[in-house]
Write a structure and sequence with these properties.
about 120 residues, mainly alpha
Amino acid sequence: MKNDYLEIENAEGMPNLADSALALDFLLSAKSAVRFYAAALTEAATPEVRMTLRNDLYNAIDMHKEITELMIKKGWLHPYNVNEQFQLDKKSTEMALKIAGMKLFPGNTSRLGTFATPHQ
């Protein structure tokens, strides 16, 4: 990874990494929704509320399934092969460490003179 992250050619692979990270976040949100709807269903007092929560639970389960299938199809998730998933997670961790080590901000953060300012 080159440190000149502003150049397009140095961002190779970043859209795919960003897509997989967003998909994983979406998957975890769907999983949380399933958990919360299931818990809420056990607390519901009326049949109407239970029916609504049950429908929402089924929708959340379907959403989780769709996201999981997409991630498997794209190669972003390997739920049936621990070694492949470990290698993918290791690669993601290494990339995150590289990004964290980049000098993203210049040493001189003064923006004086960048904009038209009166009485400089």
